[in-house]
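Two proteins were folded this term; both appear here.
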Amino acid sequence: MPGSTIPTVVLGNQNAPAAFHVSTRGEYGMRLMVDLARHWGDGSISLHAIATSEDLPEAYLEQLVAALRKAGLVTGKRGAGGGYTLARDPVSITAGDIVRALEGPIEPQVCTAEGDPVVNCVREQDCGTREVWLRLQSSIATALDGMTLADLARTKHHAPA
């Protein structure tokens, strides 16, 4: 995939229902949002310009921006000079906001059933591993929520090794 740099993080296994992971949807959406943050205050940026600068498929970005708009993270402007901007200051948008908008909740698959927490799990009282998954969930959420778009926009592009 063009420019794929973010590893997939999966909680769960391949045979289980979907678990939290960062797919191309999350990776490309994050790159789109960082690009918008780098242009904060410059007016609207077209998806074509972002697709070109980030080497991403424009049609896919159109799908992602719809979810980001629905989550209140970006706004769009039609017509000449149209494009997209962040809905609020990059300092107030976290990586966690973006991941949740594009990938869904950050939760351990092993302690959920089709996106809902397992209630009254027969193993909950004696589960020796539940704490592992809950701590991992908390660590991932804390890390994502601790990074703002302003932070990410300040990082430099690194050429692949």
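Next, the second protein.
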Amino acid sequence: MKSTTRGVSRRAVLRTGAMAAAGLPFLTNLRVMAEEAKKPLFSAMGIAAGLGRAEFMKTAGAQFLTESTGDFLVPDKSDDAFAKNLEKLAASPLPVLACNGFIRPANLRCVGKEANHDEVLVWAEAAFRRLAKAKGKFIVFGSSGARSVRDGWPMEKAEEQFVALLKRMGPLAEKHGVTVVVEQLQASECNFINRIGEAAKLIRAAGHPNIRVLADLYHMMKGGDTPQDLKAAMDVVVHIEIAEKEKRSVPGVAGDDFRPFFRVLRETGYNGAISIEGKGTNEQMAPAFATIARQAGEV
């Protein structure tokens, strides 16, 4: 009787061991998934601010700056003028990852009867070349003045012109190792490319890897875009900007919940950066970065 019990027990142990061994890949996958879930959602958090505020912003939690194309890259000024900004960057505790305010001169037009793509591209290549020297990565293409559609000009024609411009701009950006990210803007600021789906459609039509979409959560919320709209555009989204909806305040001031959007980013495997572009006092900056990190960690 004892030997029978021992035999059964031994068989049970062997069977249990075999089942455990068979289940190892599953358990390993679960462990890997758990470890992946613990990773920070964003590769880095930054803020739209000048180099003069870099030291303070670093103490608040920023890991990079979004600078101004006109002020930092100065495409309309000499190389000597830009060299002075490079000296400031060399002394900065934060890198410049991106530059916004892309096309500033009033005479440069992307669409409409006055569209002058050759002149736009001269400006653009100067910006790309200098961003590369600064070791930056993104040029944010909002530029409401340059791309707004004037009365009487067909929207379909504007879309054709914009795509044609992007097709020419892509190889120039690639040449200098930077990426142009087209930003959707709320209708009160611009009447062209107001929804993230519109931006995604035009970027897909342009068909160049160095022309992509910036998902600005502030403009998205103001325009009525949903997390599902973001999900539908994620194949071309490579950068994120953020601010609260009502007053464009930095995260944490009004208490906006960004987790539904962050959940989409997590589910689609986003691994890029996020930049604050909002209003706030010095005292609100550290809580803003903490709010982003907390909400991102909760999805």
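Confidence is low (pLDDT under 50) at residues 1-22, 24-28. The radius of gyration is 24 Å. These notes refer to the second protein only.
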